C-alpha cells in the first residue's frame, strides 16, 4: 500500500479512537435535569404516592421540608452489566482497528501492537467504577390552581422519564 493511503487511514483511525474515548467518558456523565409535572390529585395523596414509588425503587428520604412541601430522596444507582460489556467490546474493536493500521505502518513490530488489546477491559472497569453512585431526586409540590398541583422534580433524566411514565402525569414543556 502507498504511504498516502496508510497515513490517511491512520489519521481517520486515530480520530475514531478519540471519539470512542469521549464516548466511553460520556457514559458516566451526570445527566441531572429539572422536570415539571401536573397532577389533579391532592398534595397529601401526591406525597404518599411519590414516597411509595421511590421506596419501591430503593430510594430513601434524606431531607424533608414540610413548610415548602419539598422532599429529597437518595438512592444508589447500580451500573449496567450490559453497558459495561458493550463498552469493553467497543474498546476492543477500536483498539483492534488501531492495531491493524499500526501493523501496516510498522510491520517489523506488528505483534507487539496486539498487546494493546489487553487495555480494552479498562473501558468496562472505568464505567463500572464511575457509574455506580448515589443519586438524589428532589421534589417540590406547589398548588397552582384549586384542582391542579405542580410537581417540580430534579434528578437523573432516566429516573425522571420513568417517573413520568409510571405515574402518568402530564409534563409541562
Question: Would you write up a description of this structure?
Answer:
It holds the Pfam family CCB1. It comes from [Phormidium ambiguum] IAM M-71. This is Cofactor assembly of complex C subunit B. The chain crosses the membrane at residues 6-24, 81-105, 111-128. The chain is an alpha+beta fold and 173 residues long. The chain has two domains: 1-30 and 82-132, no CATH class; 32-77 and 133-172, TATA-Binding Protein (2-Layer Sandwich), CATH 3.30.310.80. Helix content is 51%, strand content 25%. Strand 2 (60-65) and strand 3 (70-77) form a beta hairpin. Helix 1 (3-26) runs antiparallel to helix 3 and helix 3 packs antiparallel against helix 5 (121-131).
CATH superfamily of the largest domain: Kinase associated domain 1, KA1
Return the CATH topology of the largest domain.
TATA-Binding Protein
The radius of gyration computed from the alpha-carbon positions, rounded to a whole number of angstroms, is 24 Å
Helical fraction: 40-55%
Going across the major beta sheet, what is the strand order? 2-3-4-5-1-6
Termini separation (Å)? Answer: 56 Å
Low-confidence stretches: none
* Extended strand count: 6
Described by the principal axes of the CA atoms, the overall outline is elongated
CATH architectural name of the largest domain: 2-Layer Sandwich
> Largest sheet at a glance?
6 strands, antiparallel
- What is the helix tally? 6
Number of domains: 2
Series of H and E elements: HEHEEHHHEEHE
Average pLDDT score: 88
- The first-level CATH class of the largest domain is given as Alpha Beta
Q: Which strand-content bin applies to the residues?
A: 25-35%
| Strand-pairing-aware structural class | alpha+beta
Amino acid at each position: 500500500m502507498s504511504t498516502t493511503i496508510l497515513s490517511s487511514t491512520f489519521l481517520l483511525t486515530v480520530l475514531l479512537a478519540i471519539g470512542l474515548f469521549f464516548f466511553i467518558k460520556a457514559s458516566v456523565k451526570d445527566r441531572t435535569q429539572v422536570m415539571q409535572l401536573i397532577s389533579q390529585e391532592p398534595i397529601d395523596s401526591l406525597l404518599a404516592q411519590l414516597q411509595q414509588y421511590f421506596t419501591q425503587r430503593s430510594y430513601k428520604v434524606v431531607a424533608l421540608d414540610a413548610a415548602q412541601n419539598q422532599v429529597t430522596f437518595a438512592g444508589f444507582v447500580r451500573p449496567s452489566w450490559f453497558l459495561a460489556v458493550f463498552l469493553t467490546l467497543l474498546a476492543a474493536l477500536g483498539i483492534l482497528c488501531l492495531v491493524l493500521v499500526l501493523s501496516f505502518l510498522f510491520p517489523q513490530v506488528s505483534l507487539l501492537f496486539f498487546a494493546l488489546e489487553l487495555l480494552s477491559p479498562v473501558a468496562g472497569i472505568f464505567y463500572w467504577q464511575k457509574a455506580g453512585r448515589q443519586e438524589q431526586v428532589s421534589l417540590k409540590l406547589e398548588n397552582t390552581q384549586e384542582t391542579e398541583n405542580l410537581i417540580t422534580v430534579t434528578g437523573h433524566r432516566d429516573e425522571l422519564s420513568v417517573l413520568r411514565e409510571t405515574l402518568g402525569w402530564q409534563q409541562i414543556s
